Amino acid sequence: xxxxxxxxxxxxxxxxxxxxxxxxxxxxxxxxxxxxxxxxxxxxxxxxxxxxxxxxxxxxxxxxxxxxxxxxxxxxxxxxxxxxxxxxxxxxxxxxxxxxxxxxxxxxxxxxxxxxxxxxxxxxxxxxxxxxxxxxxxxxxxxxxxxxxxxxxxxxxxxxxxxxxxxxxxxxxxxxxxxxxxxxxxxxxxxxxxxxxxxxxx
Length: 202
Hints:
It is a single chain. This protein has 202 residues and is an alpha+beta fold. The protein has one domain: HORMA domain (Cell Cycle, Spindle Assembly Checkpoint Protein, Chain A, 2-Layer Sandwich). The protein has helices spanning 2-6, 10-31, 56-74, 118-134, and strands spanning 40-45, 48-53, 78-87, 93-103, 146-154, 176-184, 188-196. α2 (10-31) runs antiparallel to α3. The radius of gyration is 17 Å and the shape is globular. It starts with a helix and ends in a 6-residue tail after the last strand.
């Protein structure tokens, strides 16, 4: 691929990371049963099979979030993205998928491309997505209808776009925590973890 020869630019890195979040959010919503399976369609990406939503409203919402996220990645002003799973009846937070984003702020659109094969980056992304797929093996069953919220943490002096609002951090009291793999484009690094509410009497 030509991307391998050119190396990784700031714009290319922002697009790679935004694409990861698009597929990652879809995977979490599918694997955790937030939406029924018939609302998803199977696609091939990163040499693996993934599920993406076919629901027009959800797709439009996720596309707008990822588009805004890509802009913040390009400006190196985003610090983390959090997907919060809540119980629809009680609004209790059951899971919190946190993706910390480190940006090399010394890089500009004029900087020389970084040397890292795109195949290597996609291999690291594939490992993270595989862990999301495997999450059903260690996370408690979600036994009530659930919804989700997306939180994006940016630099403090950033203006809030229209239709976005400030919110609480949606923390879980005394959570269990599982760290997932990370990946790096050499310009952006994404570290993942999921925290969840303990179940049972323990």
